[in-house]
């Protein structure tokens, strides 16, 4: 299952049914899980661990050194889960020691062509990155988030679960769960109701989330006052409790 023109280091570990295409390079300290397919001209350097049943398309670069001036060759890692689709020309870098040592992509994600995940990023499960979406270092992306094409996320930002960004969105602050944003700086445009319905959220729960959004974005309350109001509601509503927890943990502030 390894093309004769591919270069696979003897210290790499490949699971059963792994395919490696023409002119691909798999370096030392790379582990690839069962039934993963590596297309032609892909470069994978280590230390990198890739799970099972991934589809990695041609010309991707995975596990190369972080684009960070402070990196001095430390053995940091890239970890990729299972069943991800990583399309052409995507780049995923290893981490830095200062950032925790691991860049992580979860499972069941779909990265369209030219997407970039920088050092120390933590990406959850079931996300979609449309073409040329790019994360700077230390960004956290929650489960089921959808990034529109050419979305740019500033370093250390967090994107909550079930968020959605519009085309050409640029983010400098955190985006709370369930919220849809677009434009320079990420202007809020309501909640991702359609996405929530697709994922089985009840209409009652979606209504509760909409009310929380209105409290945060359409009331005349200051942020601290809005959070206090949401805390009161969140005592009996787990989705709102997640909303509050995210906001209170924000270090960069939230889009508002």
Short summary:
This protein is of the alpha/beta class and 256 residues long. The chain is built from four helices and 27 strands.
Tell me about this structure.
This protein has 256 residues and is an alpha/beta fold. It folds into two domains: 7-138, UDP N-Acetylglucosamine Acyltransferase, domain 1 (3 Solenoid); 197-249, Udp N-acetylglucosamine O-acyltransferase, C-terminal domain (Udp N-acetylglucosamine O-acyltransferase, Domain 2), CATH 1.20.1180. The chain contains four helices and 27 strands. The protein has helices spanning 193-198, 203-217, 223-234, 238-249; strands spanning 7-8, 13-14, 19-20, 25-26, 30-32, 37-38, 43-44, 48-50, 55-56, 61-64, 77-80, 85-86, 91-93, 102-105, 110-111, 116-117, 122-123, 128-129, 134-135, 140-141, 146-147, 152-153, 158-159, 164-165, 170-171, 179-182, 187-191. The strands form four sheets. A nine-stranded parallel beta sheet has the order 1-4-7-10-13-16-19-22-25, with no helix packed on it. A hairpin with a 4-residue loop joins strand 26 (179-182) and strand 27 (187-191). Helix 3 (223-234) packs antiparallel against helix 4 (238-249). The longest helix is centred in the C-terminal third of the chain and has 15 residues, at 203-217. The chain is elongated and about 65 Å long. The model has no long low-confidence stretch (mean pLDDT 96).
Topology:
Blueprint: E1 7-8, E2 13-14, E3 19-20, E4 25-26, E5 30-32, E6 37-38, E7 43-44, E8 48-50, E9 55-56, E10 61-64, E11 77-80, E12 85-86, E13 91-93, E14 102-105, E15 110-111, E16 116-117, E17 122-123, E18 128-129, E19 134-135, E20 140-141, E21 146-147, E22 152-153, E23 158-159, E24 164-165, E25 170-171, E26 179-182, E27 187-191, H1 193-198, H2 203-217, H3 223-234, H4 238-249
Parallel strand pairs: 1-4, 2-5, 3-6, 4-7, 5-8, 6-9, 7-10, 8-11, 9-12, 10-13, 11-14, 12-15, 13-16, 14-17, 15-18, 16-19, 17-20, 18-21, 19-22, 20-23, 22-25, 24-26
Antiparallel strand pairs: 26-27
């Amino acid at each position: 299952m390894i093309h004769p023109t591919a270069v696979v280091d003897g210290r790499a570990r490949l699971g059963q049914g792994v395919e490696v295409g023409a002119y691909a390079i798999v370096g030392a300290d790379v582990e690839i899980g069962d039934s993963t397919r590596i297309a032609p001209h892909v470069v994978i350097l280590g230390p990198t661990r890739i799970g099972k049943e991934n589809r990695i398309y041609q010309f991707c670069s995975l596990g190369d050194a972080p684009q960070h001036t402070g990196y001095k060759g430390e053995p940091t890692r890239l970890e990729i889960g299972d069943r991800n689709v990583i399309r052409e020309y995507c780049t995923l870098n290893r981490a830095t020691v200062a950032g925790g040592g691991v860049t992580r992509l979860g499972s069941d994600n779909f990265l369209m062509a030219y997407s970039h995940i920088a050092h120390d990023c933590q990406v959850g499960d079931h996300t979609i990155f449309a073409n040329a979406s790019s994360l700077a270092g230390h960004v956290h992306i929650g489960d089921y988030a959808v990034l529109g094409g050419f979305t740019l996320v500033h370093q250390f930002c967090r994107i909550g679960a079930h968020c959605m960004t519009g085309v050409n969105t640029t983010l400098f602050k955190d985006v709370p769960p369930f919220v849809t944003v677009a434009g320079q700086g990420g202007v809020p445009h309501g909640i991702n109701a359609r996405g929530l319905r697709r994922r089985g959220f009840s209409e009652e729960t979606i209504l509760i989330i909409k009310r929380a959004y209105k409290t945060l974005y359409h009331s005349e309350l200051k942020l601290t006052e809005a959070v206090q109001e949401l805390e009161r509601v969140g005592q009996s509503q787990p989705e709102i409790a997640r909303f509050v927890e995210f906001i209170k943990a924000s270090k960069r502030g939230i889009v508002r």
